[in-house]
Amino acid sequence: MNSYEVILMFYPDAESEKREKQYERLKGIIAGAGVIKSEDEWGMRKLAYEIEDYKEAYYILVEFDAEPGIIKEFSRIASISDTVMREMVVRVDE
Asked: What is the pLDDT of residue 48?
């Protein structure tokens, strides 16, 4: 298994229930084939530049260990979600 970090950016106007439901779904994908090491909710943060006329987003950072194949499925589900603005998965070298 490899170590990864993912930063999730949710739309600021997304209802908290929808955001939490989508986040739980994404965590389930990771937990199904790996282990979540830590989660850090950063909350609302100002963006460095506007994305789709939004000036801020709700951030969550997740560190986990998983097989490489799960990353593709995770990114696919995140990209079709209506609450996720952006996501970036990065492999962490140890």
From this structure: 92
Please state, in angstroms and rounded to a whole number, the distance separating the CA atoms of residues 4 and 19: 22
DSSP 29: H
* Contact in structure between 90 and 25 (CB atoms under 8 Å): no
Condensed to tens digits (0 to 9), the pLDDT of residues 41-94 reads 999 999 999 999 999 999 999 999 998 889 999 999 999 989 999 999 999 987
Per-residue confidence (pLDDT) for residue 58, from 0 to 100: 94
Q: Which long-range contacts (CB under 8 A, 24 or more apart) does 54-60 make?
A: 54/11, 54/12, 54/85, 56/12, 57/9, 57/10, 57/11, 57/12, 57/85, 57/86, 58/9, 58/10, 58/11, 58/12, 58/14, 58/19, 59/7, 59/8, 59/9, 59/10, 60/7, 60/8, 60/10, 60/23
Kindly state the tokens that stand for 35. Answer: 């282990």
